[in-house]
Amino acid sequence: MTDLRQLWIVVPLLLGMTCAFAGPNIQHWVTERGTRVYHVEAKDLPLVDVQLLFDAGSARDGQHFGLAAMTSGLLDKGAGDWNADHIAQRLEGIGAVLGTSVSRDSASLVLRSLSRTDILKSALETMAKVVALPRFSEMDFFRERKRVLAGLRRFGELPGKVGGQAYYQDIYRGHPYGHRVLGESATVAALTVGAIREFHRRYYVASNAVAVVVGDTSRERVESMVMELTEKLPAGPPPEPIPQVDLAGPGGTQTIHFPSRQTHIFSGMAALNRHDPEYFALYVGNYILGGSGLVSKISGQIRDERGLAYSASSYFAPLAEKGPFTMSLQTRNDQAPEALAVLRKTFVNFIDNGPSEEELTRAKKSITGGFVLRIDSNSKMSNYVAMIGFYGLPIDYLDTFTDKVNSVTTVDIRKAFHSHLQLDHFQTVLVGGRSQSHGN
Amino acid sequence: MIRLIFFLALLSGFSHAGPAVHERVLENGLKVLVKEDHRAPVVVSQIWYEVGGSYEFEGITGVSHILEHMMFKGTKNHAPGDFSRIIAENGGRENAFTGRDYTAYFQRLEKSRLRISFELEADRMRNLQLDPAEFEKEREVVLEERRMRTDDKPRSKAFEYFLALAHTNGGYRNPVIGWPVDIRGLRVADLQEWYERWYAPNNATLVVAGDVDPEAVFSLAEEYFGPLPSGDPVQPRIRTEVEQLGTRRMTIRLPGELPYLIMGYKVPVLKTAEKEKDAYALEVLAGILDGGNSARLAGRLVRGSQMAVSAGAGYDLYARMGSLFMFEATPAEGYSLSDLETALKSEIRELQTNPVAPEELARVKAQVLANSVFERDSVFYQAMQLGTLETVGLGWKRVDEYEARISQVTAEDVLASAKQFLVEDNLTVCFLDPLPMDLSQADGSELGGGVHDD
């Protein structure tokens, strides 16, 4: 209570800040061939971040689990008349960094380069060829497949990886979000170059692309950059939406025996997509429940009160279709039943009673007072704008963020949690060694 | 290749220097460094203490780290948990990290709230209250952290054992998180003593970066930290690692899926090198081997011969004491750990025999130059660099020398450093040779699983 005085000082500062530092000036347009472009000019540093995102994540794998990841991973291993060495040398010789990555929803290429004209030109030339004219040679494919298979084997020695995958499988039962982004050993071993070429042809098309450019460049320059990056891609039709998540069916608990000292626990259900009107109520509510690190209710109960875990939290991972709400922790094997009971009880208390007004006020101050920290560098800005662009969120998402957080009420949170989360639908996965009494 | 060299020549004429660093030392010995960055209305505040895992000795390993945890558990003026709650309510992000050479605490805040951070940090620098009940809970939290980070990760575990074999008496022998038996044995009195010895303004550096005015930061620092009394001057004991006298080898057997190779050569770092040029040459050498996808390990072992599914090399230029030039690799199917060791050594021999190509050297330098711009995008990273260099005793000014010193390194320097330092007698090798993961028998009890230390 003694801190309340301090809190009240903060409010006028916050209001002042909202005015002084509104969201970034995001320029948005769509090219003739359907690429959605998002540009933020930031001239303070002589660098440019370019992201090219496609709706070509692992949700597009079909039965070939791992296809999207393999396609993305092979892009910079050979393109046009260049092999992997040439591509890497061209980029690294000018200090540019190009990465590829895949998630359930998206496949992306991310470039960071100095903005000096000749350097940026060379970097973009490489990126353009990598995205449009990958070789997908047999030799590169066999090697990368071997590496992915080794990576998957390695996941098998980590209880957190084993548990995370079992959990997704349980909550998505046959939905394309249910398998690992990298695929499974059997499906990866069955991939073919033909399938990869086909995947690239189908999904790496201009009308399925979002381009994000943040940094030291003018609008005019960005227009020609995006033209260059997409001109060799087919216009293609954008793909059909992925199927909705079917929530019917009871929850359950799966226990996986594993030779580890800790049991990793995951519990939750598919819950939230990016366009959900109750997004902010759920976000703020979860911030209080388990999303604010050491000060959250879950961390308080599990770690502070009982010393049961180093890390205990809950989060929503919103996707194009319903992404999961997950509570998770890791604890010494013999403490797993106790920890799971405390986790459940904390959740049920929150569902039944919601947050108090005081908790909500604190959470709002914390979220809005730290808003600027989310976008205080070019790379963070670039990632936020990429998220806005990829999911087609309103262009003023960042400008209205603070207001939307502030307008959430305790009633909104209770309502939203009730309508999105039902404990009897929760899937729970425990991975660890058998409980034994612990001789200290 | 002319193209590459052309780029480099132009790059060198480019102005990369960031804004200046402002320095002030308070009367009680606290050094305050300020770096301005006005791109966004934010501030990062970090306080660095000259203490960490490498300052510890047998029996109390992990004391620095568990003390770091306890720094969030209350002072004479604040209840346990207040620190995190107040920072959170002010929209801040905060945490702390313990390394082998430092313990550091940080907050990231909207710029007008720096005062809140200073008030709380100044308070816990001298007024910590170590509550026995809180300590008992935190010991369990740290043991859980250890199980998560190390005990249940075969590679982390192997790395821990590797370091203990590579070092005989030096401070880099022990894991920063501590050996389990030491964590269990620590007493509140051990922490109290450690706190009193190392947590004082004259053993700390305060680094502030962001949208701030240096003079205003100095006076705010004076207001909150100025009144704190100095501690007794402390010098860590000199525990120079003894000469190695021959290759050391070990095999770790743990349930796992993939074999794994770790190799490390004892080498000097910038702080200990007789000739500083050697340290910078080793830094470039690490870049030649593992500076991206065009570097040798990716190009030759992962792609070329395809003996490895992954391979890496690394060097810590800014360690406080002599350290290791590291290699790690995972063999591809059909190759053994010995095959991979042989392949890595033949790469080393190549570096000891033939000068690296001009374009390879140019690439490393081009990356260094570009990175010096990229790094300026992160206010936090810039503060980290200043804090690290100051805390290991090199002084923050060394940050500014880096590009110039790297650009002076020649192919002959790289060859000479490979020849002088990557020698068999200074080598330690660890094979992680996985045992079958027998899931049906899994009991994972603290005494099972093939490891008996926990």
Task: Explain what the structure shows.
The complex is a heterodimer of chains A (440) and B (454). Chain A has 440 residues and is an alpha+beta fold. Chain A has 2 domains: 27-230, Cytochrome Bc1 Complex, Chain A, domain 1, CATH 3.30.830; 252-432, Cytochrome Bc1 Complex, Chain A, domain 1 (2-Layer Sandwich). In chain A, 45% of the residues lie in helices and 18% in strands. Chain A is built from 16 helices and 13 strands. Chain A has helices at residues 4-20, 67-74, 84-92, 117-132, 138-155, 159-172, 185-189, 193-203, 219-230, 279-291, 297-305, 336-353, 357-369, 378-390, 397-406, 410-420; strands spanning 27-30, 36-41, 47-54, 78-79, 82-83, 97-102, 107-114, 209-215, 252-257, 262-272, 312-316, 323-332, 427-432. In chain A, the strands form 3 sheets. Chain A has a 6-stranded mixed sheet, with helices on both faces. Chain A has a 5-stranded mixed sheet with strand order 9-13-10-12-11, with helices on both faces. In chain A, strands 4-5 form a two-stranded antiparallel sheet. In chain A, helix 2 crosses helix 8, helix 10 crosses helix 13 and helix 10 crosses helix 16 (410-420). Chain A starts with a helix and ends in an 8-residue tail after the last strand. By secondary structure, chain B is an alpha+beta fold. In chain B, the strands form 2 sheets. A 6-stranded mixed sheet of chain B has the order 1-2-6-3-5-4, with helices on both faces. Chain B has a 5-stranded mixed sheet with strand order 7-11-8-10-9, with helices on both faces. In chain B, helix 2 packs across helix 8. The longest helix of chain B has 20 residues, at 132-151. Chain B is globular, with a radius of gyration of 23 Å. The termini of chain B are far apart. Chains A and B meet through helix 1, helix 3, strand 7, helix 4 and helix 5 of A and helix 1, helix 3, strand 5, helix 5 and helix 11 of B.
Keywords:
heterodimer; A: alpha+beta; Cytochrome Bc1 Complex, Chain A, domain 1; 2 domains; disordered C terminus; B: 454 residues; alpha+beta; six-stranded mixed β-sheet; five-stranded mixed β-sheet; 16 helices; disordered N terminus
